[in-house]
Amino acid sequence: MNKYIIIFIIILLLIFIFNIDIHENMNSTNIISLSVPDSDWSQYWSKLDYAARENASCIPIAKDYTRLGTMDTWILTMPKSCENGMPHTRAADIIAIPEGFPKDYLPKTLEHEKIHLNQRVDLDLWKKFYKKYWNYEIFSSPPQNFPPNLITMIRANPDTCSVPYSCWNNIWWSVPVYKSVTNLNFRSCPVLWWNQLDNKIYNNPPDEWVNFFGDHVSQSEHPHEISAVYIADWIYNKNKNSKGIQILMKFWDLNKEKLIL
Ligand SMILES: [Zn+2]
Predict the structure, then answer these.
(1) What DSSP string describes 47-106?
(2) Which of 51, 82, 90, 166 is least enclosed by beta carbons within 10 angstroms?
(3) Ligand 1 mean position, distance from CA 223 (Å)
């Protein structure tokens, strides 16, 4: 047989074997050959964050390595105590879903978490969008005159942990805070708004913010959350009733390919 034909057949065989291997890795659960990458994010925790997680376990009950859009992603089933039973991302390719999470809510929740994965992968693109179109800037640390009591009380969020401080219109800083040092439940954390011009702390966003983003944004604490809420809501409910979401969806359409989702 012609040696070129033999080489060609060998190459075909190698491609076939390699594909099977990849395919098996992508779709099976409890894979032995792939270990979950490090998802420890405790370097971002304050004293209260440590205390809030004192009796929590984030050791996965089940692991699934799967493809979401074009992203290869770990979906970890977590004990209910992990992050107070809230779905979240733990790294650029890890989504954590609490045990017993309602199946009906899962598709929309995964869309939301996919946006957070993307924000981790392509942070600069999101930062540019926030600054140019939403007048938001995000920071890893607070400005010098930021109220110390807010820094003490801020609740770490795994989906915003590397850039937890956000400022809107160069005036308003929004922060999720623990209700008190004795109530560290994540679900009852209010979002407070510090106005850096009058140096006062407000319980609600300013009217200009509401006019732009709408009055039904379920997670107003950070543009990462606002965009994830908006996009998942748009995909499922076609809700496009604020200026903020209209601009975001234009950006989304333009960058869909780049955003690899
Ligand atoms: Zn989120």
Answers:
(1) HHHHHHTTT-----SEEEEEEETTEEEEEEEE-TTGGGG--EEEETTEEEEETT--GGGH
(2) 51
(3) 10
Ligand 1 geometric centre to CA of 11 (Å): 45
How is the beta sheet containing 88-91 ordered, strand by strand?
62-68, 71-78, 94-98, 88-91
* The Cα angle at residue 55 between residues 52 and 56, in degrees rounded to 5: 80
Comparing 241 with 6, the larger pLDDT belongs to 241
What pLDDT score does 3 carry?
Answer: 72
Give me ligand 1 centre to Cα 229, in Å.
Answer: 7
Which of left, alpha, beta for 235 (phi over 0: left; psi -120 to 50: alpha)? alpha
Q: How far is the CA of 103 from the centre of ligand 1 (A)?
A: 18
Report how far ligand 1's centroid is from the alpha carbon of 89 (Å). Answer: 8
Q: Residue 236 is encoded by which pair of tokens?
A: 């499922």
Question: Residue 4 above 90 pLDDT?
Answer: no
Ligand 1 centre to CA of 1 (Å) is 60
215: confidence class by pLDDT, cuts 50, 70, 90: confident
pLDDT of residue 30: 43
Instruction: Report CA(171)–ligand 1 centroid distance (Å).
Output: 24
Tell me, in angstroms, the distance from the centre of ligand 1 to residue 159's CA: 6
How many A from CA of 113 to the centre of ligand 1? 6
pLDDT by residue (tens digit) across 18-33?
443 433 343 444 444 4
**Burial class of residue 147, CB neighbours in 10 A (0-12, 13-18, 19+):** middle
* CA 123 to each of CA 139, 175, 244: distance values in angstroms, whole numbers, following the listed order: 12, 20, 19
